[in-house]
Write a structure and sequence with these properties.
Oligomer: single chain
Shape: globular
Structural class: alpha/beta
Number of strands: 21
CATH architecture of one domain: Alpha-Beta Barrel
CATH class of one domain: Alpha Beta
Distance between the termini: 87 Å
Length: 605
């Protein structure tokens, strides 16, 4: 009897990059392994979308549209190129209005994409209806998604087989157009038995010939077991990646899955020698990239606090940038309660980020002392209906702190058309009003405008960059610059050390005995000013990145006036003046990374 061929999508060049490198990968670096994958016989690739859209503009100083064009040119006209969209958010972290949702599908079709996987973290069908219609209307294959995960122990009411099959029934009974169905487990926490029962039940419900697809991560170490269970339940397609971006926070390796299917009635139908060759080229191409150790790890605690593989390294990269990586274990632990009380939205972007940000605040400011605006809006209903009702006390806190009532209607109805605002921003900066630029301005906001103006900075972590910082071109070692304040030298710092020719990433905590308070999503507590002979220094109240300055040297300001805006963990906060005076010096600029206590500016009083 002939073995059944299990199809797979190759995810290295989108999810692999996001799960290992926080999506920060330059196009020129991945084209050689992409060519090798094509030569190995792979013709179905994940090619963009999700965090790999914004990351190109934010961190790589590239256009995501140019990247997609290069991808299509490399693989030729016949390959199936798929991207990831987040329902009404499409590829933005914020919700997009109807005109931008339509423009998303139009632009992705124009730039070589053939399939869009479309999900909503809350599994609210209202958030998939219009985006699905747009994807279909522009001639793209629409893969509709049911988001999965396991709940922390003691939780019930959603994310079991009954819930998933009910969600599937709602899709089948609706008029939402779709071409295939994907069950997406971004955190890799759905237990294999539940996966088997869900796929088995789905296969009986869907019309004959319907393609069923499963996506998962190996963060909890059960991805291959999930896939085997799904295959036995009737799945058609799975997602796999190539080393060095497979396993751990990524998808299982193609070769690992090929090995697991030996002696069964199923096959991937690959040439393993060709895949080995492609993986060797892949590894060579990324020798200079920094691999976060957590991206290679399997964590048995992830099912208790479901953090998606695709978001995990993006968060830890930001924590490295802001010197707060030492807080990571506490934040992951705190996520369990945040998920438990938040209504059980699937832990996938953007909801996974809401969970992480709220857990971060709970760790740094105290439990529920501050509601993150995005988490608060979710429990209040502004992103759609959560699978179960959120905890009433959390809803009350969110309503009070955000000064908003509970919302039960369609989130799309709250959004004004995006084209006029985006066009105004482009005109303000004398930028051409192309459709691409309109979408960039809307989905990437200020950072998108910075890219279009040529102000974007490249922030890709490579070993050679770290070495260059430590050893100048002269080859002579230099002492650290001690001209700044002692406070600026405190806190965790990342270093690269080399032992026997092998580079290791280490973190040194210099003189810090207590965790610095971290700001919330809206405003920061005024940090104590440091008295100087001619005035006072305004220190950074928290590690973070400078988003923008709100004052100039020589400007007279008043007490509580916003001086600048900082960002930490994708949360913006205002730094305000403790008193009135005149701005004497400004020590930072937009894009700078600062640590707690760094002097931001000085004030003459």
């Amino acid at each position: 009897m002939a073995r059944k061929r299990i199809e797979f999508m190759e995810t290295s060049f989108r999810d692999g990059f996001q799960s290992v490198f926080g999506a920060r990968v330059a196009t020129k670096d991945f084209l050689p392994p992409l060519e090798a994958a094509l030569e190995a016989g792979i013709t179905y690739f994940e090619a963009g979308g999700g965090a790999r859209f914004q990351s190109l503009f934010f961190y790589c100083n590239e256009s995501a549209f140019d990247m997609m064009d290069s991808f299509r040119k490399t693989v030729g006209p016949d390959a199936n190129l798929q991207t990831l969209a987040r329902g009404i958010n499409v590829v933005a972290l914020s919700q997009q209005p109807r005109d931008m949702i339509d423009l998303h599908a139009k632009m992705f079709k124009k730039h070589g994409i053939t399939t869009i996987r479309n999900f909503d973290a809350l599994n609210d069908l209202r958030n998939l209806r219009f985006s699905g219609e747009c994807i279909t209307n522009h001639g793209l294959h629409h893969q509709i998604v049911i988001a999965m995960m396991d709940l922390p122990p003691g939780c019930k009411g959603a994310h079991d087989t009954k819930y998933y099959l009910k969600t599937l029934r709602n899709i089948l009974d609706s008029d939402v157009p779709f071409d295939s169905i994907c069950f997406k487990d971004a955190s890799g926490t759905a237990n294999p038995r539940k996966v088997h029962e869900t796929i088995k039940g789905a296969r009986k419900m869907v019309p004959e010939g319907t393609i069923l697809h499963l996506h998962t991560h190996d963060t909890a170490g059960t991805a291959v077991s999930q896939y085997m269970s799904a295959i036995e339940g009737g799945i058609d397609r799975i997602d796999l990646a190539m080393s060095p971006v497979s396993g751990g926070t990524g998808q299982p390796d193609i070769l690992t899955m090929w090995h697991a299917l030996k002696g069964t009635d199923y096959t991937l139908d690959i040439d393993p020698d060709k895949i080995i060759k492609a993986e060797e080229i892949f590894a060579e191409s990324f020798e200079d990239y920094y691999f976060p150790p957590e991206s290679r790890m399997v964590s048995p605690l992830i099912p208790f606090s479901p953090m998606p593989g695709g978001a995990l390294t993006a968060n830890t990269m930001m924590m490295r940038d802001t010197g707060t990586l030492h807080l990571y274990p506490d934040v992951i632990k705190e996520m369990s309660e945040v998920v438990r009380l938040g209504g059980f939205g699937a832990s996938v972007t953007p909801v996974s980020q809401f969970y992480f940000q709220q857990a971060y605040l709970n760790v740094t400011l105290g439990k529920w002392e501050k509601i993150n605006p995005s988490y608060g809006n979710m429990v209040l209903g502004y992103f759609g209906r959560t699978p179960v009702e959120p905890d009433p006390e959390i809803v009350k806190l969110a309503s009070e702190q955000l000064d908003k009532p509970v919302f039960n209607d369609d989130p799309l109805d709250l959004l004004e058309p995006g084209t006029p605002k985006a066009a105004a921003e482009l005109k303000k900066h004398n930028l051409p009003e192309t459709e691409e630029n309109l979408f960039i301005a809307s989905s990437c906001e200020e950072k998108g405008i910075d890219f279009l103006l040529g102000k974007a900075k490249t922030s890709i972590r490579k070993k050679s960059d770290e070495t260059a910082k430590e050893v100048p071109a002269s080859g002579k070692s230099t002492a650290p610059n001690l001209s700044g304040s002692v406070e600026s030298l405190k806190g965790p710092r990342d270093y690269t050390i080399t032992v026997d020719g092998r580079a290791y990433q280490v973190q040194v905590n210099a003189g810090v005995n207590a965790v610095a308070p971290v700001v919330s999503g809206n405003t920061a507590e005024n940090a104590p000013a440091t008295q100087q002979t001619s005035g006072i220094d305004i220190p950074a109240p928290t590690p973070g990145n400078i988003v923008r300055l709100e004052v100039e040297v020589g400007e007279t300001i008043t007490a509580d006036q916003t001086l600048l805006v900082m960002e930490a963990m994708k949360m913006e906060s205002d730094v305000k003046s403790p008193q009135s005076g005149v701005i004497q010096t400004i020590n930072v600029q937009a894009g700078d990374t600062v640590q707690s206590g760094d002097a931001l500016l000085s004030l003459k009083v």
